[in-house]
Amino acid sequence: MGRDTIADIITSIRNADMDRKVTVRIASTNITENIVKILLREGFIENVRKHQESNKYFLVLTLRHRRNRKGTYRTILNLKRISRPGLRIYSNYQRIPRILGGMGIVILSTSRGIMTDREARLERIGGEILCYIWVLPGMKEQKWIHEGLITESLPNGMFRVRLDNENMILGYVSGKIRRSFIRILPGDRVKIEKNGRIGSRKSARRIPKGVIHVQASFNNTIVTVTDVRGRVVSWSSAGTCGFRGTRRGTPFAAQTAAGNAIRTVVDQGMQRAEVMIKGPGLGRDAALRAIRRSGILLSFVRDVTPMPHNGCRPPKKRRV
To answer: Model pTM?
Structure first.
């Protein structure tokens, strides 16, 4: 299977923007040059130049970092690959999605070349949806310095600190202190520097209703909680709860997995749910009992275990 050139350049640009790099170098091909031209024209990057190195051509992109009076104001550049070599996604011009109400762009590969969604709607042609590109508001970093008393030393250079406001937090020794061989013991008073981000913060999503999927096999029990649109909110399994070997298929393991998956969505306000149970495992009833004890009102419980109806021919019985 060949390389996905578009996914490579999208990942390179996204990682460089997250690491606050000024420039990023990507391979130069016909399709990458057309995509970069669109990025430059739409203002997502500041500059681009072509670079040759040992008979190979590269594109050096200069990322855009806005500045204000207080310094650099970052804009988070988001790029998402849509159509892949294993799954091509096509759309006509009427069903091309709008990103953030038109603030983002969609890059398509059409019969008339690579263009944006606005150009495709004007030309009334569809094509393959290559990627989505949009920009989120900038975020600034702010540092808080707290003082407290070390109450307990933990492994790997970590310790537990009681702040002046009686809150307990975890801290770790910086590399500079480690190199100076300074020992920090319980009872010492220290300063904790905490980095935080202010700006656009994503509020917690409230999910009043959802769907709980229980997949119970003889070897494991997987519990997945989604909203009504099918987006996964929380999941757990007997393996992630620490059960190994044959214990993963026990009812107690299924009960523990269901409790861990439900605990997260209960905190997000889930009150009603539909339950879909699949598989012949021993943890079916135990998982259902754990869901009922969580306080979530169940609309219905449906068994979606696939059953053969004279479909595929069964394998030949073994001769003994």
So the answer is: 0.46
Reported as a single tens digit per residue, the pLDDT across 147-156 is 777 777 665 5
CA 133 – CA 147 distance, rounded (Å): 43
Each residue of 3-59: pLDDT tens digit? 888 999 999 998 888 888 888 999 899 999 999 999 988 888 888 999 888 888 999
What would the DSSP string read from start to end of the chain? ----HHHHHHHHHHHHHHTT-SEEEEE--HHHHHHHHHHHHHTSEEEEEEEEETTEEEEEEEE--EEETTEEE--EEEEEE--BTTB--EE-TTSPPPGGGGTSEEEEEETTEEEEHHHHHHHT--EEEEEEEEEEPPEEEEEEEEEEEEEEE-STTEEEEEETTS-EEEEE--HHHHHTT----TT-EEEEEEEEEEE--PPPPP-SEEEEEEEE-SS-EEEEEEETT--EEEEEETTTTT--GGGGGSHHHHHHHHHHHHHHHHHTT--EEEEEEES--TTHHHHHHHHHHTTPEEEEEEE-----SS-SPPPPPPP-
200's tokens: 């656009």
The two structure tokens encoding residue 220? 């494991």
CA distance 207 to 198: 25
- As a whole number of Å, the end-to-end CA separation of the chain is 44
